[in-house]
Every structure is written in structure tokens, then in C-alpha cells.
Amino acid sequence: MTRNIRRSLHAAAIALTLSLPLSAAWSAEEVNIQNGYAVHGYDVVAYFTEGEPTLGVDEFQTEYDGATFRFASADHLAAFEADPEAYVPAYGGFCAFGTAMGRKFDGDPQVWKIVDGKLYLNVNQSVQERWEGDIPGFVRGADNNWQVIQAVADKDLEQSPPEGVTLGAQ
Length: 170
Prior knowledge:
Blueprint: H1 3-19, H2 22-30, E1 33-34, E2 37-38, H3 44-49, E3 57-64, E4 67-71, H4 74-82, H5 96-100, E5 108-115, E6 118-122, H6 125-132, H7 135-149, H8 154-159
Antiparallel strand pairs: 1-2, 3-4, 5-6
């Protein structure tokens, strides 16, 4: 490859990177994406309307905050598109207890709870039972930590927690 072609490719790569919205650059760390989907492909509206985890389908999906969300019906898709913040899980779908501990663990869509109109996921049932021991305190801790860790990969959090991270309930 000639030097001019390499320069042109390098310049094009820089231009593409600079043209991306900042949210696109960070969204992969801010939303828990598993198998290509937010919330493992579960319909976030169904938690509120059906009261149970419901898998979405490819026919009804949309992009939001750099992630693909799937829905079980056109009505659920429309409800989400009308007010996505009413349905997206707290902490990008990462485990609520883990976030309170300054980490970003996978949120299991089968282990969930709606508190004060917000959907929270936890990594497993035993962690959720611990989280339920002081939901208000763990939510305060997670809210504090999310401001600090949302754009940081978990592998980096494990190696060196950022300043301002608290551990547990507040």
C-alpha cells in the first residue's frame, strides 16, 4: 500500500470517527447489550403492561440510545417510541445491585422489579434478594455510581474504580 493511500485511509478514519455523535461512541458502555439486543431482546414495555418478562420479536424493534430494543407487539413498540424513558431499565439494563457496588454486571431479564415506575434488573435471584433488603439505599448508591461509571467498561472498573464510586446502599 502506498504512503498516499495509507494517509487517505487514515484521514478518512479520523473524519468518520469525528463525525459520529458522542452518544454513539459511548452507548456501547452505557447500555447492556447481549446477543445484539438491549435487555437480551425482552420487551421492556411488557414488564409494565403484562407484569412479566416477554420476549420481543424481530418484526417489532427500534434503536434507542445506541441499542436495539425488541417488542412483542406493534402497540408496545409504539408506546416505547412515544416515551422511551418511561420503559428503559435503570442503569442501562445492568444489574442494579452491581451498579450500587460500582460495577456493571449483566442484568437478567427474568430477575426484575418495578420500583416507583422504574424497571430494575439484577444479575440473579440471590443478588436481587439482597438488593430488596434496602431498595431505597441501593438505588441511591447506584444513582450516585451511575453518574461516575456509565461510560466506563466493567473491565476497567474491576481494575481501577473511578473516584467518587461508593460501595452499596447510601
